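USER:
Class, as today's exercise, take the chain set out below, and explain how the chain folds.
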Amino acid sequence: MSRGSVVVLGVDGYLGWATALHLSAHGHQVLGIDSLVRRRWDRECGTRSLIPIRSMPQRIKLWQKLTGRTIAWQRLDLCNAAAVTEMVRQVRPAALIHFAEQRSAPFSMIDRPHAVMTQVNNLVGTLNLLFALRDHAPNAHLIKLGTMGEYGTPNIDIEEGFLTISHNGRQDRLPFPMQPGSFYHLSKLHDSHNIQFAGRVWGLRATDLHQGVVYGSQTDEVAIHPGLATRFDYDAIWGTVLNRFCVQAALGLPLTVYGKGGQTRGFLDIRDTVACVRLALDNPPAQGEYRVFNQFTEQFSVKALAGKVREARAAHGLETEIVHLANPRVEREAHYYNAKHQKLLDLGLQPHLLGDTLIESVIELVQRYAGRVDPVELEQPNVDWRRGGTAGWTKPLPRPVVVMSGARRERRAAAAERLRAGIDQRR
């Protein structure tokens, strides 16, 4: 690897793989790093990607065969300080894209061991990386995937990382006050503090991408061949809300909104995620600078998002029901939310906005792999913020759904009936 290499940490993950392909396609020399722990967590939780994904060696080989471009690959755990230090010393990368963290809020709320593991994995891994950069690649640009969830839902506009405060006749520009919503989100906030501190005392430069909720699974590079597919998670632990709604719509199940549905968040297409990373990479900060970009393109409430999915189905003459379940999270269900996201637009981001056509394309993708859907995963959330994981949070794999004309209708009807029965009991 040359001194101009870009290291993608967490390359086996949903965003890491898509980003590695995107950067490779745009001429960057990419080294992918991953411990493959996400696949082990799938086995632990009894979950799996809706879209089958190949092994890392198979993915790398196929990419080279199809494009003639090479992505190097190394299995490495960021919590192994010696291995991280040696990798940075040998590669001396120009930039590192840091996706290599446990990224599920529900997973972090299952119980004490999962909360501890989340914070140790995320914080220790990043600290090991920061010390390795200090000693062996002090000029490298660290691009870390943060989350809009660090901010919470304050009753003021959310700025991009910093806020100018006037107090008792004095003024300063300080980090924006944060109200994280889970032990996972807290780990990301602690990361942000550690990275900012490393920039201040060691002169490291970093971009913290506070990302909203990502949807979709297709980028220009991923779409080249089914064997290049990235993950599509829809379950209660790893899945995101739009993915869940699209799977439910494809199966003819009610869309399950947690609580009142007024929870508002920023969203973006996966194509915009990889574009944002490349824009940050191509426009690095000054040495010693820590900067924050709020990385999303649109804001929706959960209820409004469910309405958009229902409208997309209605355009095809299909009726979709929306039901409300008790909210497993402790969060405001009706609140003010106005987050700024101008910096990436100023760098040239051209957003792919959510429309009926994109929703339908996701639903069509789900229908293609409907045989891999587990309807039980869609019925009730299995992690509660107050009590932790329910008895059913972990399940053995495989538990496939055999999709045949009669069997599929029976499963859909049974799952929908169980869902409605649970709702009626709580009324």
